[in-house]
Structure formats: C-alpha cells, structure tokens
C-alpha cells in the first residue's frame, strides 16, 4: 500500500507538477508527510527523497531571482512611446523575459508528449501560447525592419534589435533571442543587402 501511494504521488508530480507549486495546501501536506516519514517511517522517507527533489521546479519567482540583478530598477520611458527606439534595449529584453518566464512555468510535462501540440491545441495550450507569441514577436520585428524607407533608419532599427538580442542572451532567454533572430534571418529581411552591408559601418 505504501509503495502504491508513493507511486501515485510520483505520477501526480510528473504530470501535474504545477499543483505542487501553485497550491500551498498541497505543498504543505506533502512537506508534512515527508517530515512525518523521516521521523516515523524510514522506508517511506527513503522513497520520498527523490520526490522532494522533483518538487523543486522552476517558478517565475525563482527565475527572476536567479536571472536579474536584485538592485535592477526598471527603465521607464520619460515620454509616450512612439517607436522601438523610445524603449531601453535592456528593459525591452527584461520585460520579454518576464513574460516568457511566466508562460514557461505554466508548461505541463504532458503537453510535450507525443507531439500533442500538432494534434490538438487543447492538449497543449501553453505550447500553443508560446508558439503564438513567438510568431507575433517575429512578425513585429519583420514589420518594424521593413517599414523603414531609408537604409539609415533601417540600420538603426536593425542595430536596436541586435542590441536587444545581446541582452536576451545575457538573461539566458534563448527563445526570445530566437524570435528576433528568425525575423532578421527571414527571406524578406535578408534580401535587404544594402542594410546588412552597411551594418558594421553603422556600428
């Protein structure tokens, strides 16, 4: 019976780990069980140790603490935002990372099984959300780069996005960096040879 219960909890953690993160009651009950087992049932305690380790999962708060400088102050634009250049590059990267960290922490393991996201979006709502955001961000970057009519203004925009990519990589937000890189590497943008040809000169 003891082993069956532990296996059931292990299955629960594997497939619905967010319950142990978002619900304080479940987390507290589990911790109390582990504490009781360590004092009264050594055999169960030994089996519960791997589950305790499994419960240490990435949360938005933990990602923020380990990614950002605790003394970092948000850079708020002094006036209305009229273009991408009115937003501090690092702040842009930071806010994008915060949004994506929150979504990432909502991801359930079962969404990644059997390529569920390709069969039924309802089976993988968070993966679908991440894919949609990827496409929206990539489209935004392409639109921003292609909307300029002069090489000089396009160079300025391209340099801005490259700067944002550097900050995203610093924050280990590889998904966010790839959103912008995929836009820059798209056929519609890559054909702007004069823009890329003058990039090193502009920088």
Automatic annotation (TrEMBL):
GO-annotated molecular function: guanyl-nucleotide exchange factor activity
PROSITE patterns: RASGEF_CAT
Domain Ras-GEF: 88-203
Alphabetically ordered keywords of this record: Guanine-nucleotide releasing factor
PANTHER family xrefs: CELL DIVISION CONTROL PROTEIN 25, GUANINE NUCLEOTIDE EXCHANGE FACTOR
Taxonomy, superkingdom: Eukaryota
InterPro entries attached to this UniProt entry: Ras-like_GEF (IPR008937), Ras_GEF_dom_sf (IPR023578), RASGEF_cat_dom (IPR001895), RASGEF_cat_dom_sf (IPR036964)
Gene3D superfamilies: Ras guanine-nucleotide exchange factors catalytic domain (1.10.840.10), Son of sevenless (SoS) protein Chain: S domain 1 (1.20.870.10)
Pfam families: RasGEF
Source organism per UniProt: Arcella intermedia
Name of the protein in question: Ras-GEF domain-containing protein
One of the GO biological process terms: Ras protein signal transduction
Recorded GO CC terms: plasma membrane
